[in-house]
Design goal:
Blueprint lengths: L2 H33 L3 H9 L5 H18 L1 H10 L1 H20 L6 H31 L3 E3 L5 E3 L3 H4 L2 H25 L3 H32 L5 H23 L3 H23 L2 E3 L9 E2 H4 L3 H28 L14
Helix pairs in contact: 1-2, 1-3, 1-6, 1-8, 1-11, 3-4, 3-13, 5-6, 6-8, 6-11, 8-9, 8-11, 9-10, 9-11, 10-11
InterPro entries: Cyt-d_oxidase_su2 (IPR003317)
Main location: membrane
Keywords: Cell membrane, Electron transport, Heme, Iron, Membrane, Metal-binding, Transmembrane, Transmembrane helix, Transport
């Protein structure tokens, strides 16, 4: 396998890891005003992700760094074309992170209320905008090669806000919301656990409808492509695992439901990547203007060095994160929250 193709899939795996792990963080944040009946409830909900949320976000940093090193043209074109959307995502992530650290300073209900709102919106906007961006990558964007080198994005933020792109954003947001609710049920006990499971079922049904329409639309757009079999396969797996996750949640098997939801998000994103391959950006102006994997990749020497670094570093990162989840595997209850804190 060519190193450029290998790194296309490595970047894809890193992004899948980010959306699976930070995806339930987003879902927990979106659930905060719906499940948190008082400040103790809200602290229980936040504490379910307290030890891991910042570790989950590092997958985005690693994916961005690998994208920059392996496909600089893709990185440059995407970050210039999606500039406003990425800026909004960055602001939302900053507000969310700051809120996790400062809401517990104990300066009154108004203080915590503002930070709770920041957590909600900082958890809602990123999956909505990420989903919209990745849907547009699969559909095609107004890009063309420049005579001086590189590719030029000729659209605006409004170009991304088309029906297909917005449906992708809504579908990913609902998938993350369901994922987070199941995680709350997995990590809590008592009344919060029951309410999280019930809400996960209701939200999951809506998410299943939105995701089915989006995946069906994606398959329809790419029928006849060289990779259409892979698009159909991963779309079917995404649908099957998500339905299994809803049924397992109803049965009270939160651990298996969480695993099924994680697989569903992974398969949904792999559907997008297979619809995109062998291109990095599909041109809606002229297919001949599309950015290919080989055409935007770094040199073989750079990719070879990155491969050796990945071989040694990625297993260590995965092992450390697995150890962290094992250490903080216990359920969080209201009894764990000091009344005077």
């Amino acid at each position: 396998m060519e190193l450029s193709i290998l790194w296309f899939f490595i970047v894809g795996v890193l992004l899948v890891g980010y959306f699976v792990l930070d995806g339930f963080d987003f879902g927990v944040g979106m659930a905060l005003p719906l499940l948190g009946r008082d400040n103790t409830d809200r602290r229980v909900i936040i504490n379910t992700i307290g030890p891991v949320w910042d570790l989950n976000e590092t997958w985005l940093i690693v994916a961005g760094a690998c994208l920059f090193a392996a496909f600089p043209e893709w990185y440059a074109t995407m970050f210039s074309g999606f500039y406003l959307a990425l800026l909004l995502i960055l602001v939302a992530l900053i507000l969310r992170g700051v809120s996790f650290e400062y809401r517990h300073q104990g300066k009154g209900e108004r203080w915590t209320g503002w930070f709770d709102r920041f957590i909600f919106w900082g958890s809602l906007l990123p999956p909505l905008l990420w989903g919209t961006a990745f849907a547009n990558l699969a559909q095609g964007l107004p890009v063309r090669p420049q005579e001086t080198g590189g590719w030029l994005y000729e659209g605006t933020l409004l170009t991304l806000l088309n029906p297909y792109g917005l449906l992708g954003g809504i579908a990913l947001t609902l998938l993350c919301f369901t994922h987070g609710l199941v995680f709350i049920a997995l990590k809590t006990d008592g009344d919060i656990r029951g309410r999280a499971r019930a809400l996960a079922t209701r939200v999951g049904i809506v998410a299943a409808v939105a995701a089915a329409i989006f995946l069906g639309w994606t398959v329809q757009q790419h029928l006849g492509d060289a990779n259409s079999w892979a698009v159909v396969l991963f779309a079917a797996l995404a649908a099957a695992t998500f339905i299994a996750g809803i049924l397992l949640n109803i049965a009270g098997r939160e651990g298996w439901s969480f695993t099924a939801n994680a697989l569903s998000i992974a398969c949904a994103l792999l559907t997008i990547f297979m619809a995109l391959f062998p291109n990095l950006m599909v041109s809606s102006i002229d297919p001949a203007y599309s950015m290919s994997v080989q055409g935007a990749a770094s040199s073989e020497k750079t990719l070879g060095l990155m491969t050796w670094l990945a071989v040694f570093s990625l297993p260590l990162v995965i092992a450390y994160q697995a150890w962290t989840y094992w250490i903080f595997r216990r359920r969080v209850t209201r009894e764990h929250i000091p009344a005077t804190a």
